[in-house]
Amino acid sequence: MSAVDRRIIGIETEFGVNATFREGPRLAPEEVARYLFRKVVAWGRSSNVFLSNGSRLYLDVGSHPEYATAECVDLLDVLAHDKAGELIVQDLADDAEQRLAEEGMDATIYVLKNNVDSRGNSYGSHENYLIRRDGRLERVTDTLVPFLVTRQLVSGAGRLHVVGERATYLVSQRADHMWEGLSSATTRSRPIINTRDEPHADPERYRRLHVIVGDSTMSQTTTLLRIGTTDLVLRMLEAGTIVPDLALANPVQAIRDVSRDPTGRRPLARQRGGTITALDMQRELLELASRYAAGAGIADTAPYDQVLELWDRTLHAIDTDNLALVDTEVEWVMKKSLLDSYADRHGLAPHDERLQQLDLAWHDVHPRRGLVPILQRAGRARTLVDDARVARAMHEPPQTRARLRGDFVRAAQEHRRDFTCDWVHLKLNDAASRTVVCKDPFVSVDARVEELIASIRAGSAPHTERPGSVG
Ligand SMILES: Nc1ncnc2c1ncn2[C@@H]1O[C@H](COP(=O)(O)OP(=O)(O)OP(=O)(O)O)[C@@H](O)[C@H]1O
Ligand SMILES: [Mg+2]
């Protein structure tokens, strides 16, 4: 396959961290996050490290650890590496609990993969898609923005939003926190797509599209829909498919409206006049994407066959008011059905505190305590990658540039060599070494990196006692 047929994808996730203290002093969330990173700092001498599976793990200011998956080309690899990130951060929490206990603090730390904390702060899950540089960016974004505004119908994580005694079930966690359509800044103004031009690849050929708008997703099938539908829409746009003008008059208003309308039928004002519903918009894009996929010969190829089937079934479920058709696969529907049945069983008002607790527990990444792993074991949350594949992804990089980085990091760690790296560069911190620049994210074999690793191995015997499971 040529590079055009493949696409590099990575997901960055910011986690929420909560702690409850039973005994001893209490710590602020920022301090808890710092405890979480003690193990990382001990391992990599920094709170911003690259791991041997090719990922990046870091703590900026504040209390939200971030895990950015390695560059993947296989959609199921993205799922495995995204899940691996949950377990790696959970490991840090387990370790931090132990350290706190040793210091006389009896605490439970919760790692939450959601997008809004109890104070209303929002944190993100950013998707990165490698796209071709040629052609005008607007040709992609003109369609991509309305697609993303309505994509929540198939990929929203759902949120019980309570103000006083008023409870609203929202389709999306993130929708209320988007303030612009396009922008080159992420935090100041929160755009749907960030156009900052930092491709981590040959800038003559590629761009890295930074999608800020998505919810963090726990359900594997929902993550597949999130990245799979977007990949298909990008593919058809890159192939030059003529798409009718779908632009919305006010994307930022529309995204909130769609989030408040689980029926998908509320009319959204179009830029060219008239209205369209979220369901119709998604239906139109699905039809175009299906036709494109059939023409490109990928409609029956895994996992695109699954993406198209589930995309279609989800829209049909919403259209026919039969959400049970996707209640083990689409996250906002899964969560809604759990909350509804719990409220029914216990006769709870929609704003009941216990329902809000359930909503939080949904996002708990703990493999035994979290609701999604529990539903998985009960056969009520469909999975696509098994535990063994996720466990492998905690240590093994995907077969992309990430493999070069991962192998380098592992060798340097084993031989206790000081090193620096980022997505593109690898360097040993000594005067003699030159920086190896890995510009092509598809390339997983490189003689220069092999030489670099051989020079590490020749320099000293390996240091085998490696700390825990980070790295
Ligand atoms: N050429 C590429 N194309 C698409 N995705 C890429 C490419 N190179 C790296 N990525 C992915 O982009 C993500 C970068 O994560 P990182 O957190 O460093 O993002 P950033 O936007 O560069 O920086 P920050 O979050 O600090 O603003 C990773 O998930 C990585 O796998
Ligand atoms: Mg990031």
UniProtKB/TrEMBL annotation:
Keywords: ATP-binding, Ligase, Magnesium, Metal-binding, Nucleotide-binding, Proteasome, Ubl conjugation pathway. The keyword Coiled coil does not apply. The keyword NADP does not apply. Its EC number is 6.3.1.19. It catalyses: ATP + [prokaryotic ubiquitin-like protein]-L-glutamate + [protein]-L-lysine = ADP + phosphate + N(6)-([prokaryotic ubiquitin-like protein]-gamma-L-glutamyl)-[protein]-L-lysine. InterPro entries: Pup_ligase, Pup_ligase/deamidase. GO terms for molecular function: ATP binding; ligase activity, forming carbon-nitrogen bonds; magnesium ion binding; ubiquitin-like protein transferase activity. GO terms for biological process: modification-dependent protein catabolic process; proteasomal protein catabolic process; protein pupylation. Catalyzes the covalent attachment of the prokaryotic ubiquitin-like protein modifier Pup to the proteasomal substrate proteins, thereby targeting them for proteasomal degradation. This tagging system is termed pupylation. The ligation reaction involves the side-chain carboxylate of the C-terminal glutamate of Pup and the side-chain amino group of a substrate lysine. This is Pup--protein ligase. It comes from Ornithinimicrobium cerasi.
